Amino acid sequence: MATAAVKENDVVSPPAIVVENLVTHYGEREILKGISLQIQAGEILVIMGGSGSGKSTLLRSLLGLLRPSAGSIHILGTDITTLDQHEFRKLRRKTGVAFQGGALFGSMTVGENLQLPLREHTRLDENTMRIMTRMKLEFVNLAGFESLMPAELSGGMTKRAALARAIIMDPKLLFFDEPSAGLDPVSAVELDHLILKLRKAMNTTIVVVTHELQSAFGIADRIAVLDNGELLVTGTVEEIRQSNNPRVQGLLNRQPREETLSAAEYMDRLTSYIVD
What we know:
This protein is of the alpha/beta class. The protein has two domains: 6-94 and 171-275, Rossmann fold; 101-170, no CATH class. It has helices at residues 55-62, 85-92, 110-121, 126-139, 155-166, 185-202, 213-219, 237-241, 246-252, 263-275, and strands at 6-8, 11-13, 17-26, 29-39, 44-49, 70-75, 78-79, 95-98, 173-177, 205-209, 222-227, 230-235. Helix 3 (110-121) packs parallel to helix 5.
């Protein structure tokens, strides 16, 4: 396993995630073709790529939902490809996932949805769970909404409630699957701000899979670009913008989705959230 590390405040921290020579198949079809990638502790890495590039398969592999054909995935120093179900369950307590559609249980209130991981993995008393629920809802600007049902929430509120559930146990790692999908531009910017706010408040390592260039450029420390199951390049936002790889430039030059903000409007809104 690679041993590269970053230095923050004179303390050397090993990478939070190390992927080495990852190969994944669906039946006879090879999806990921020898992916190697490091994600440093406390950074926001955005995984981008067109449809069929392998980004969702990579995310599923990082989450342990898909066993690779070859290679290794070290999460917080542990190779998850060698863990049994009990060991992996313990590791999962240190991670959170915000699913694309929110994945809230429709028969439970917002508060009950947030408390589900606490009931599953801890023995906290009811009062402590209520306090933690209120704190996390306040963090995502949903204070006072714990008694609502998911059907009563807007799309943006659903995404924020799902984020609150994902961070209810203060995870060291947080994964987002297409966080801006289905949101109007203003709600998308607000969610991007929450991602930045979360990293600052909790120093959480964050992995985001998205096809939204504007969002990726706004939140990423580094971007990993996939195409046809291959990792084309990993770099800072500026390095990705300046890449001379024609496949990378093809991704960057796609037409933006309808009803999006201009780059200037996006940055103005994101900056205003941060200032506030």
